[in-house]
């Protein structure tokens, strides 16, 4: 549950924040950043609130003033990072030209965001792909909702492309999952690799595979054996 104090700050964010409000937000960010590093490295079950308090250099009592449970802290990280990614993509495609340009910019924004947030992708993969026994269904459900909203934003781009006659007879969901799946696989491979490349270098490869397919001559049907 979001603390009442944070709700009040968010409600009045249009005006100047007081020194105490700024200090509150800085402390909260320190806690979230420390928790993300630990969750990414050790997993949910392998990280305690005491360790998060120590890493963020606060007392355990102060930590609980910000987040009542480890679950709420974990979910706050996931929800905020998905929101940041969504806002990053929306800002990038704002004012873009046709649908192909929007898709290209959306993929570029996603790759850039993930390159800047390696710890988060570690966290996301852990809860989505290799669920930990200590992570109960409520957390999985919230992560699933965040991911579905992420997919939906790409679906909207695909729906635009379908209206423009850009794509063949696939559903917007199939198209969105195909592109996002390719992005996720590329990011995962990059994440566990030697780390000597940038995700930005893989941008065009992802788009080439999505828009043109893998066949050298797609118009020629494969011969049956």
Task: Provide an overview of this structure.
The chain is mostly helical. It has 2 domains: 1-68, Arc Repressor Mutant, subunit A, CATH 1.10.10.60; 71-216, Tetracycline Repressor, domain 2 (Orthogonal Bundle), CATH 1.10.357. 70% of the residues lie in helices and 0% in strands. It is built from 10 helices and no strands. The protein has helices at residues 4-11, 19-42, 49-55, 60-66, 70-93, 99-116, 118-128, 137-163, 172-192, 203-212. α5 (70-93) runs parallel beside α8, α6 packs antiparallel against α8 (137-163) and α8 (137-163) packs across α9 (172-192). The longest helix is centred in the middle third of the chain and has 27 residues, at 137-163.
Distance between the termini: 60 Å
In the CATH hierarchy, the third-tier topology of the largest domain is known as: Tetracycline Repressor, domain 2
SSE ordering:
HHHHHHHHHH
β-strand amount: under 5%
The description of the largest β-sheet is: none
Strand tally: 0
Structural class: mainly alpha
In CATH, the architecture of the largest domain is Orthogonal Bundle
Q: What form results from the Cα inertia axes?
A: elongated
Let me know the average pLDDT.
86
The CATH C-level name of the largest domain is Mainly Alpha
Helix and strand topology:
Layout: H1 4-11, H2 19-42, H3 49-55, H4 60-66, H5 70-93, H6 99-116, H7 118-128, H8 137-163, H9 172-192, H10 203-212
Question: Key features?
Answer:
2 domains; Arc Repressor Mutant, subunit A; 0% strand; 225 residues; 10 helices; Tetracycline Repressor, domain 2; mainly alpha
């Amino acid at each position: 549950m979001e603390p009442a104090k944070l709700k009040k700050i968010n409600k009045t964010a249009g005006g100047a924040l007081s020194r105490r409000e700024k200090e509150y937000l800085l402390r909260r960010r320190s806690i979230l950043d420390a928790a993300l590093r630990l969750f990414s490295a050790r997993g949910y079950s392998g990280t305690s609130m005491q360790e998060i308090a120590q890493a963020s250099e606060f007392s355990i009592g102060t930590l609980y003033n910000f987040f009542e449970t480890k679950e709420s802290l974990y979910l706050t990280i996931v929800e905020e990072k998905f929101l940041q990614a969504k806002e990053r993509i929306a800002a990038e495609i704002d004012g873009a030209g046709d649908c192909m340009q929007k898709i290209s910019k959306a993929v570029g924004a996603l790759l850039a965001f993930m390159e800047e947030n390696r710890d988060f992708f570690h966290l996301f993969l852990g809860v989505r792909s290799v669920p930990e026994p200590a992570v109960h269904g409520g957390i999985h459900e919230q992560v699933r909702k965040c991911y579905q909203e992420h997919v939906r934003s790409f679906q909207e781009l695909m729906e635009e492309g379908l209206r423009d006659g850009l794509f063949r007879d696939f559903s917007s969901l199939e198209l969105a999952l195909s592109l996002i799946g390719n992005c996720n696989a590329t990011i995962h491979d990059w994440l566990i690799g030697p780390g000597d490349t940038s995700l930005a270098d893989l941008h065009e490869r992802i788009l080439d595979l999505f828009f043109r397919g893998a066949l050298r001559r797609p118009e020629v049907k494969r011969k049956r054996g």
